[in-house]
Amino acid sequence: MAPSISTEIDIAAPPSAVWTTLTDFDHYPEWNPFMVKASGSKNVGGKLTIALKPADNSSSMTFSPTIQTFAPNEHLSWEGRLLGIPGLFTGQHHFILYPTDTGTRFEQSEQFSGVLALVLHWIGSNMYETTKQGFALMNNALKERVEKSSSGDPALK
Question: For the whole model, what pTM was predicted?
């Protein structure tokens, strides 16, 4: 079974507000403690450059995934491969926004595949737990930033 990670958080703001902050890559350094830098093309097939700062303060890493889904206010996903080699270590990352009565349920998940992904899972690497902690840090920071910027929205009061 391929390893996967999933986190979610409720945000008291509409999906459009969450989407605006999530896809405003230029401002990631101001608020995002996990994905500390992001840039690139915001369309399906476009390449991104993402710099991660792991939650355990281990070495940061930069990778260049390809956008798979870009559905405004609903779903952003990308696929990244270690060294660009298919079958070695691939991550399918998803951000899904679900409208709720009080705002948005934000889900961040990743499915891993490839030989190295299975080996790391089998030997009990803490990489998956550290990554999940990074997702949670990002989710909480996203919630804080969006709710502060949306606090004047009368539809959410």
Answer: 0.89
